[in-house]
Each structure stands twice: as structure tokens, then as C-alpha cells.
Amino acid sequence: MHSPVLLLIDGFNLLSRGYFATSYGKDEAQLPRNEAGYYINALRVFFPKLFQLIREHNVTHVAVAWDVKREDSHRRQAFAFYKASRGELPEALIEQYETATSLLEEIGVAQVTIPPYEADDTIGAFACRWAKEEKGHCFIYSNDRDLLQLLSKSTSQIISSKGKDLIYTEEDFRNDYNISPAQWVDVKALLGDKSDNIPGCPGVGEKSALPLIQQYGTIETLYEQIEDLDPKYKRYYKKLVAGEESVIISKELATITTEIEAISSFSLNSLVLTTPADLIIDTLARCGIRVKLAPVQTELKLG
């Protein structure tokens, strides 16, 4: 028996990418529906991908993490501008989210939503607990690069790129950025994130944010030494001073919560998928979704 392997799915990241990839250039009337009349274009990406990942990485434990409603997140409650620029979601995508959660429950795949935390926080808390308890390897599936701060010897991120999956490790990160994964939030604190409406430090871009953290380690150390700033960053001095409060807030927003009481006491055994293979296949087939199960699943059990 191989070591336990945990797969953490950023649920809405996968579902929405599947939706937009298969709906490009189409209106909702052109999207496929099943016999019951429900939209299934995103679901036909979501479920096959879920079971492909389970097959390919010998997964024993799996959880799908969902976000709370945007206005209910602890970041939005603290800072009203957080993610305020995001538009409304298509109705066909919202419907498929509701269908996905129902189907996952029916086939026994664990889903986790813990108010007021976002999916990133849920994933972070599970990954860190898994590592502390030395359970085995953890794979995070998401294209959200905020999650790179969670990389460790026991945690890798699977990123979809040009139709292929890239397994991105802590070593890859250190080689690419010459900092530790934990320092990624300091880079993000300076850069900000337009998609999440995180301001960062105005005037400090990619060419300077990473080198500053490579040299000073954290934004705290950077500001402690701001009056003795290396001359090569002299042109950023006024911008850094003016943007200090914004940078501090941005780091708070970018930092993933890894200690959540509900996850500390969560039964990891409940993440083992034990649903009979024929039930999984039949349930999804009735909704117009085909999946391929791993050999271990055909023995009716994962793990």
C-alpha cells in the first residue's frame, strides 16, 4: 500500500475555467444541456478532470473546497473594496455550481465550505495539517497562483497550462523566484492583484517587487530599513513610503489562513472516497457526464 495522497480541489476555479473554456463565443442558448434540461458544459470538464487527477496521482483522500459568498468572506468584511470590481456570474455557471455540489454529495466526494473563509484558506488549512501530521503528499489543483505560498516538501500545486498539467513543486518555485514560498505574500503585497482588487504599492511593478523581497526578505524588514534603502532602489523610495499602509493591507489580504479550528478537528478519514464505482458512473451518466475511474476505484474503494 502506497503512502496516503491528498488531493485538494479549488472547486470554483476548476468549474469556472471549464465553463468559460467551453462557452467562449456562445450564448447560453447554445450551451449543452442534459435530458433534464440542466446545463452541463462545465460539469463535463469538472468531473472527468476530478477522476483523472485521482487516477494519475494515486489519490487516497480528496476534498473539494468551495468559497463562501463573496460578501461573507472575512477579507470582504474587513475591507469592502476586496474583489469589489468583479462582475456577476453567468446564470448557467451558477446553476452548474448547484448541480456540482449536489452530485458530489450524491457520489460521496467530500466538500468543504467554512464561513467566513475562502477556498484558499480551507485548502491552506488542510495542506498544513496534512504536512504536520506527516500523512504523505498533498496535491493542490488550481490555477490560482496565490496558492504558491503553500508549497512545501510535502505540498505541490497542479497548474493547467496549454492543455497540460504542470506539477509545480517547492523546488521549482525556489529555482524560479529565489525566495521561499512563504515570501510570495510579500511579493504580492508590493505588486497587488487587480483581479482581487488588492492595491499593492502604486508605482512598484514586477521588475522591482521580486528583487526587493529577494534582498530584504519581507515587507516588514524593507520598511524597517527604508531610510537606508539600497541606492539601486532610490527611485522607488517615495512610492514605497507613500504606499506603506496600502502594502501592509495588501499583505493581510494576500496571506492565506492556515489555522482554522474546524479543520483542526476535521476527520481526515471522511476524505476517503468509498462509494461503489458503478454508483459513481451511473449517477454521473444520468446527468450526461462520463468519467473514467482508476483500477483501485473499480474495487469500490479509494485508499
From TrEMBL:
One Pfam family cited in the UniProt record for this chain: 5_3_exonuc
SUPFAM superfamilies named among the record's database cross-references: 5' to 3' exonuclease, C-terminal subdomain, PIN domain-like
GO terms of biological process kind: DNA replication, Okazaki fragment processing
Domain 5'-3' exonuclease stretches: 1-274
Record key words, sorted: DNA-binding, Exonuclease, Hydrolase, Nuclease
InterPro entries: 5-3_exonucl_a-hlix_arch_N, 5-3_exonuclease, 5-3_exonuclease_C_sf, DNA_polI_H3TH, FEN, HhH2, PIN-like_dom_sf
MF GO annotations: 5'-3' exonuclease activity; 5'-flap endonuclease activity; DNA binding
CDD domains: H3TH_53EXO (cd09898), PIN_53EXO (cd09859)
Purpose of the protein: 5'-3' exonuclease acting preferentially on double-stranded DNA.
Protein name: 5'-3' exonuclease
Organism whose genome encodes this protein: Halalkalibacterium halodurans
